[in-house]
Amino acid sequence: MWLLTSTQRYVIIELKRGLVSRDAVAQLLSYRASIVDELPARSRPIGLLVGDRLDNEAQGMIDHLPRLAFISLDDLLGR
Asked: What percent of the chain has pLDDT over 70?
């Protein structure tokens, strides 16, 4: 899923169930690259991964790659 913010920036949202792996991060990076390829005039999109929790590899990727973020379902739902 993706959305366009009021500042004309794309946000790509990937929803996952359970433990989120590096494969989910790679998938999100692929979606983000597709937006850049299809809409090059837009500012660089942000990738947002939503799930229960990240495994160690996925956490390392999120920590070191720009314009990527993770939000746990618990935080999102205020649990």
From this structure: 96
Question: Which residue has 């649990």 as its token pair?
Answer: 79
60 closest CA partner among 26, 27, 12, 17: 26
Supply the pLDDT for residue 42: 64
Q: Which contacts qualify for 12-18: CB closer than 8 Å, 24 or more apart? A: 12/45, 12/46, 12/47, 12/48, 13/48, 13/49, 13/50, 14/47, 14/48, 14/49, 14/50, 15/50, 15/51, 16/49, 16/50, 16/51, 16/52, 17/51, 17/52, 18/51, 18/52
Which pLDDT score is estimated for 41? 65
Q: What is the pLDDT of residues 25-51, one digit of tens each?
A: 999 999 998 888 887 666 789 999 999
